[in-house]
Design a protein that fits this description.
This protein is an all-alpha fold. The protein contains four helices and no strands.
């Protein structure tokens, strides 16, 4: 039970940190580089247009149009970038402070 709870907690903390980092990146980009954010929003709008005009039946296309917007795609993009950053920093931190002990058959003798 402890391992499961630890994994759930670790995953939840990672998601919250990535969410906050993505929000901070989005706000920072909007304040300091609005032209770049405008370019990203235009790209997200093009992706939205492409996804909503795929020829799906209206039964499914209505849900795609309802739940998919250029704002959601932009935030998703920033969240993915933030998750990659958190993974790199977390891996570097854990490997520096908690190195794994090599298994006996992996140890080499000089």
């Amino acid at each position: 039970m402890g391992i499961l709870l630890g994994r759930i907690t670790s995953t939840s903390v990672t998601l919250v940190i990535a969410f906050l980092l993505a929000l901070a990146m989005l706000v920072t980009l909007g304040l300091y580089a609005p032209n770049v954010l405008n370019w990203i929003l235009d790209g997200a709008e093009m992706v939205e247009d492409w996804l909503t005009h795929t020829g799906l039946p209206n039964r499914y296309n209505n849900f795609v149009r309802l739940f998919l917007g250029d704002e959601q795609l932009t935030f998703l993009f920033f969240t993915i970038i933030a998750r990659i950053i958190v993974a790199i920093v977390g891996t570097a931190f854990s490997s520096a402070f908690f190195p794994k002990e090599k298994k006996p058959y992996e140890k080499r003798f000089g």
